[in-house]
Amino acid sequence: VYNAAPAWGVTVGDALAVPEPLLTQHHHQHQGQTFSFLGLRVSSPLSLVVNGKRPPGSALAPPRLALTNPGAAPP
């Protein structure tokens, strides 16, 4: 689950409801092999319903800020 906190997850046997899913067909070729699979994406783990309940706020991974300056000289 994208943007889920490392300590949160679902387990085998959990009932999972996915409101407003985005289903995407992926096709990739690599070293002569073709890989095809479906991807199911939701905007946030907080939009899921697991075993009849919404996940707690702690299920969402904290934001991270990464800065780069391509024009800067290396340290």
Description:
This protein is mainly β. It has a domain at 1-52. The chain is built from no helices and four strands. The protein has a two-stranded antiparallel ribbon. Strands 2-3 form a two-stranded antiparallel ribbon. It is flat. The model has no long low-confidence stretch (mean pLDDT 89). It comes from Pomatostomus ruficeps (Chestnut-crowned babbler). Residues 53-75 are annotated as: Disordered. InterPro entries: TTC5_OB, TTC5_OB_sf. Residues 1-61 form the Tetratricopeptide repeat protein 5 OB fold domain. This is TTC5 protein.
Short précis:
The chain has about 80 residues and is mainly β.
What is the element layout, followed by pairings?
Elements: E1 16-17, E2 22-30, E3 33-41, E4 49-50
Antiparallel strand pairs: 1-4, 2-3
The radius of gyration computed from the alpha-carbon positions, rounded to a whole number of angstroms, is: 18 Å
Find the count of extended strands (DSSP E, 2+ residues): 4
Strand percentage: 25-35%
Sheet with the most strands, sense and barrel status:
2 strands, antiparallel
Provide the structure class: mainly beta
Q: What is the chain-wise order of helices and strands?
A: EEEE
